[in-house]
Every structure is written in C-alpha cells, then in structure tokens.
Give the backbone structure.
Amino acid sequence: MAEWRNAVLLRSFRHSSFSHLLLPLFLSVQAPGPAGPWRAVLDLAGGPLRFALTVEQKGGTWQGKLCNGTQCQALSAVRVAGDSVVFDIATYAATIAAVARGDSLVGEYHNVGRRGPRTIPFRAARGRWPVEKGPGGLTGRWDAQFLTDFDASPRVIELRNDRAGLEGTIISNTGDYGLFWGHAQADSFSISHFDGSYVYMLTGQLKADTLRGVFHAGLRTQTRFIAVRSNGAPHLKSPSEITTADTAPFRFSFPDLEGRQITEADPRLRGKVVVIDVFGTWCPTCHDAAPALVQLYKDYHARGLEIVGLAYEVSGDSATDNHQVRLYRDTYHIPFTLLRAGTNDTEAAAATLPQLTNFTAFPTTIFLDRTGRVRRIHAGFYGPALPEQHAKLVKEMRAEVESLLRER
Amino acid sequence: MRNYWRLSRLTSHFLPLTLLIFGVRSPLTAQDGLVAERSAFALWLANAPDSPLAALAQQAIGTGLTLGPEDADVPLKNSTRMTVREEGSSVMLNHQGTKTPLPRDRLTAIGPYQLRPAGPSGRSVLTVFGPEHRTLIPSYYPADSHFVMTGSLTKPASRVTHRILMPDGVETEAIEAGVFTIQLESGPANLKVYRIADEDTGESELVIYFQDLTNGKGSYPAGRFVTLTPRDEITYLLDFNRSRNPFCAYSTAYACPAPWPGNRLSVEIKAGEKYGN
C-alpha cells in the first residue's frame, strides 16, 4: 500500500515546525488505499463539476458509491491495482480510471458513444465537500429560456436548500433532468448532476432580479440561459397536452415476461379503468414513477383499476430484456402486469403504439376509461427531486383514476 | 481556483504543494489528457462491436435494402435474406417471415452481424458490422503547442442550416454557428463552424471540418474534423492536435463527408491524426 501513502503530507512534515503536533493526527487519518470519502471533480471546459465518491473495503472486496448531494448510487465495481483505481458504472458502460498522485486521484471518465469514447478529465482529493447553501434570493422557482444560436426553449429551474447544500432541478416540457446538487457563493451558484451517463452542470449568477448563466452538458456543450422569478403562471407546455391519441379504443398486443401474448381484450382488463405505463428499466425517471404507480394500484385495484407496464428495453434480446424487467419488478414489488413491448427508441416505441401522436417521453402514462378509450396522456413524470410537482402530479393521477372509476 | 478546494487549517499549511497538483487549470490541453483520449480511442477501434474497423457496409436504405445472399445489396456470408425498409418514421427489418422495428442509432444483433440505422427519416443509412476487426492503429503528429489557438466566433446574421455528413457518414442537419478566425504565419484565416447535436445526450459540439496542405501528404486527403472548446462566452480554444479523421479513413464502407467550402487552409497543419504510416 506504499503507493497510497500521503506523499504530499509526508514530505511537507519534514519541514514543518508543527510536525510534532500534527503527526499523530496525520497518522490517525491515514486511510488504507483508496478507502474513504473523496471530493471528486470532472473538469468540463466551462469549469469543475463536483460530485462525491466514497470507497470502502468489505470482506476483501472494494466497493463504492457516487453521490450528488444526498442522492447516491452504488458503483458496480471498484478495482484497485498498485496505485491505480478503476470505478465501474456498469449501467451506463462507463468507467472512471485514475492513479494516485500523492493524496489525490488524477485520471479520466470514459463512456462510449456512437462515434467513439467520450473522455473527461477527472480528479479527486480526500475529504467531503463542504455544505454551502444558497441565499434566499436565489431559491425558488425560475422561468428560464435556454438559448442556442437562434433558438430559445423554455425550462423551469428550481433551487432550494437541503442538508447537503444547494439543490435544484431543471424541468423541460417532457420532464426533469434529475436531482442537481451544488453550492453557492453570494449570488453565484453551481449545481450539477452526474450519474455515470449524464454530465450536466448549471452555473449562474443573480443580478437585479435576473438569473443568467450557462447549462453545461458533457465536456464541451454550453447553452446560455436567462431566467426570471416565476409569477406562478405556467411556463412550460402541460405534460397532458403533448402526446395525443385517436378516439378508438386503445389496442396493444405484447408478450408478458413468460412469453404469453397479452392484448387489450384480456379478460382481466375488460370493463376496468386501465393505466398504461410506457417505461424502460434504463430510464431514471421511470424508476421515480414506479413507487407512485404501485401505490396507485394498491389503493384502487379493489375498486376496478388495472395497470399495465409496457417495457421498452435496450438490447432487443428477449432473455436479457426479461431479466432486466424482472429485476425492476422485484425492486419495486410491482404487483401489476409488465409486458415487453420493444426497444427504447422513441420512434420504435411510437411505431408499436400507432394510435399515439407525438410520443416523446419515457415514461408516458396513459389513462383508459372502462370502454378502453384514452382519456388522458401524461408525458414524462415529476420525480421526488421535485417534491411539490411530484405531490401535485400524484394527486392529479389519483383524481383522474377516481373520476374514471365513478363512470359506469 | 478561488475557494475551490475548501482548505482546512491543516491542509492550508501545505497550500503551495496542493497548488502544484490542482493549480494547473488546463487539463483540456494537457499532454496527458491527449494521450488518454488517444489510447481510449485506439482501444475502442480495436474492440467495439461498432468500430469502423468492423464495418462491412454503409448504405442508404432508400426504397429498401436487401442483405444476405450474393445478389443482395449487402452480401453477408452465411446469412439468409433480410430486407430493411423505412416505414413512416421507423426502420423495419424483415427476417425469416417476421417484421421487427430496428431502433435508430442502436445496434441490433442478427447472427454474427450488427445492424444500425441512423440519419433523418426518409434518408436513413444502414451500417452493417461484422464479427471481425481489421488491424489499424491510428498515428499522430507529435503534440505541438503552436497548433493550440484561441479566437472568437463571429455569428451569422440569420439562422442557416446545412445537411452535412458527420464523421461516421451519417447525415445530420447542422446549424451554422459562425466563422472562427485564427492567426497563421501567413495571416488571418477563417474557418466555418457548424453546431452538430447529439439528440441522445442533449449535447452538441461546435465542429470544424478543414483541409490543409498536409492532406494526401501525411494526413487524410479528404480533410479532418476538430471541435471547438468554449473558454468563456465569446472565446474558444482550437487545438489542432485533437483533429481526427472521418471514419472513411478507417474503412471504405463509409461515405466520406464532402469538404466544407471555404475551409481550406493554405498552410501545413502538422498536428493531430495522420493517415497511413
């Protein structure tokens, strides 16, 4: 483990007049190998994106997690060899490979795109990020326009303080970008979301009631934005106005996880209010929606609600996809039917559901009345990262189901 | 660096040494970043199922494309007849009497082959990959800091889009992002910059496809691609050491992007990827 010793500190101590005071402290904090908390950074062209890594050794095996503030995900593997360490994020076929230099880690984050690997410089220092909350003038709901070249598109930015510091979310017409975490200094802030696949950072500054800044995606993409405090009027298109359906009874025919073909004419669905959940196990927002759908089912199944999940998966191979869907079902204890509908391509999904117009988002929730007709379509889902919208949406879904159940 | 690593009383004692490690704020141009990027790319070329070194064919789907037997548009060894067609906005595969959608921008395995449709509806292309990789190790001019330059982007007066081929031979609609002016020994030169979006990740890049006097004499004859890195709101960094060949340089299966008019430099850019040995 010699490689992992704190070379910088050791060298410095020899020249330090305080070494006799600090040495015991230093010895007590020296951790074996990469174990412990790390303040990690991806160096984007527009500045450092902060996140946290925690590594520990359990029963001879290294393991770790990657966190954005309070939200963490387990790494699929931590491989340590000599002075190098590799963090695997298998869900997204991504890795962070680094070497120890003194008491820090220096390396790269990689993931594979269609035109080759994407590489972003990575570095980390031992310790935890400080909690830096934002001033009251910064928190709240902001109506933003993202500006690229000659286009502007609406977003809502929500900023709030949590125990890990400043948190936030960005919402587009089709859903949110997940939980962002970061820090603020006076009127400037930086929040980010890095989950192994998406590399997002929002930086900005408040000046005279206007928030201006940059949305960073990946190493090099930068989109300017300008935002004003929300006056409560809707800034985004309502998620129930995006995707529409024809007026005929809704038809589908897909295999369940045992390979039996299930259609809308299934006796279990006859005369019932049916909620169709168009989802994919690869889609983080779909994971956010799953517990809410399970609760909806538990509360209304006895009164005539059925839920059918249509899974659009990555591989297209039935064995692999069924396995993923079973894992998803078991994780959320899903009591309703899940069907394997196709692959996770918006256009391919649209092709398997030809009655829908403008199918754009995973998940999409479709509400059918007792005659099988589409009554409401909700594109996207507001996850718990947006507590208020999440609560409102769940309430609306319950109201919709209750109203449809009352129809005879 | 300002307040970046919150320094405790303990570590602030060693601030100069901390700065040695973290103070070099230019990892994007650092030599080790370039080496890591190139080795990751070489590994990807050698191993990825969709590496251009595994590509067998890339063809427009047009009114329908047949794959398999010798008389097919794309002959494939030991493969029964398959047809690929565009239907509405979807790409459908007919194989052994069953019709399945082929998701765009994704690989679908059919026996030992991998198929990937891409490009705009109605003008999609299908790229077919085989199980074997040819051997090719990309080579580069030695890194040279003279070929790292900053400049600003002069935006066009109105929104103009162009249908162009990306490095992988797939068509996209690119927005004219402006003109980037660089200072060469011979005087100022202008390069046209397009914004190319990746709908999958929401990311987009400012791309330059350029030609120079090394083309055909050390570098790839058709030209090379390089991307701009933003420095601040108006300044960008252009690092010719990071210029890359289009995929047609690795395999004749690919369509080669036509040079962008006006992007021919009258100097030798002895930086970035070479062609041949």
